[in-house]
Write a structure and sequence with these properties.
alpha/beta; 2 domains; 342 residues; 14 helices
Length: 342
């Protein structure tokens, strides 16, 4: 356990050194007006990396969770003991309406986002300025029909005794007539679907996103890997639907959860999210997020000094940061003298 904690300390220091500012943060002027402590938050509670312009306290118990009382009762009936590490950090951000990216070993568990999202959706006054149409406020995109069925059933189970959101499962094939004749349950606020089905719906129903406030990408790493073109179309439609003056007074939230950090997710954050709240509970994925690259150079002990000087002797148009780790204090002194005096 001590070795694992030490590794996380080193990883967090290295990530903070290499990537001190949040992705896609506000303008420099706005950031200047904020307190420096709010620019970035790295937490070490049981090995969690948090990167955001805001600092939120994790909910380490159900009493602290931003979840309605009815939902808490339903979760207790299902033997849910309390939020795990990833949920403890994700739930407050979702409950506050923040854009979220979460990478965790349990990134395929819908409970990572469903309880706080349902609680948010059960506040009708928040959506009072939305058009009164029978269209969803939230869409959950899943990587496959089996997962979509599972998520939709969980939504129905958890909302059985609270304000009914009428979650609907939308799965359509390639038949244009099937897509054209699709009809949602009256009062449907949540739709669960797959990338291919959603794109087919958007091709026939151009106003399908007109009330959309929450887009959830469940298994985002798998979604991009298996349906890249469809995800590009969905995100483009989401941007077009939400980036209009009429939507400034309504919630706009993009939630992406998965098991692995990928390059596509970096583009997702930069192009589609505003001040995202990034939560990563896996050290290897945190290193990928921070763009930490490892290059192994094998040499004899007597050649370390010359090899180090060779690696440091480079010219670059832009300044680059270099962080050197050693095994002991004596080596620190030696490396410092070598680097200072060549």
């Amino acid at each position: 356990m001590a070795i694992w904690t030490r590794q996380w300390r080193v990883t967090n220091i290295l990530l903070q050194f290499l990537n001190p500012d949040p992705l896609n943060s506000k303008s420099e002027l706005e950031m200047h007006l904020q307190q420096p402590s709010q620019k970035m938050a790295f937490d070490l509670w049981n090995g969690v990396l948090v990167h955001s312009v805001i600092k939120l306290s994790p909910c380490r118990s159900m009493e602290m969770a931003p979840v309605s009382l009815d939902l808490k009762k339903e979760l207790c009936k299902k033997k849910f003991v309390g939020p795990n590490i990833a949920q403890a950090y994700c739930w407050p951000a979702i409950g506050r309406g923040c854009d979220l990216v979460a990478v965790s070993q349990k990134g395929d568990d819908p409970l990572l986002y469903i309880p706080p999202l349902l609680t948010f959706l059960q506040l009708p006054s928040v959506y009072s300025f939305q058009p009164r149409r029978n269209l969803p406020l939230a869409i959950i995109v899943c990587p496959g029909q089996q997962k979509a069925h599972f998520v939709c059933q969980m939504l129905m189970d958890l909302t059985r005794f609270s304000r009914t959101l009428y979650p609907s499962l939308v799965l359509v094939g390639q038949d244009p007539e099937e897509t054209k004749n699709i009809k949602l349950i009256k009062g449907c606020d949540v739709v669960v679907t797959t990338p291919h089905s959603l794109v087919r719906v958007l091709q026939k129903h151009c106003l399908f996103f007109i009330r959309l406030s929450h887009l959830v990408l469940d298994g985002v790493d798998v979604l991009f890997d298996e349906a890249m073109d469809e995800m590009t179309t969905i995100l483009q439609c989401f941007r077009e639907a939400t980036n209009v003056p009429e939507r400034l007074s309504t919630p706009q939230q993009l939630i992406a959860v998965g098991k692995h950090w990928t390059k596509q997710m970096e583009s997702l954050v930069k192009e589609n999210q505003s001040d995202p709240y990034v939560v990563i509970t896996a050290m290897e994925e945190a290193a990928l997020y921070g763009n930490v690259q490892q290059v192994v150079q094998l040499c004899l002990d007597c050649e370390k000094t010359s090899l180090l000087l060779t690696m440091l002797d480079f010219t670059s148009e832009c300044l680059q940061k270099t962080l050197i780790f050693t095994n002991c204090a004596e080596e620190v002194d030696h490396v410092f003298k070598v680097g200072s005096y060549g």
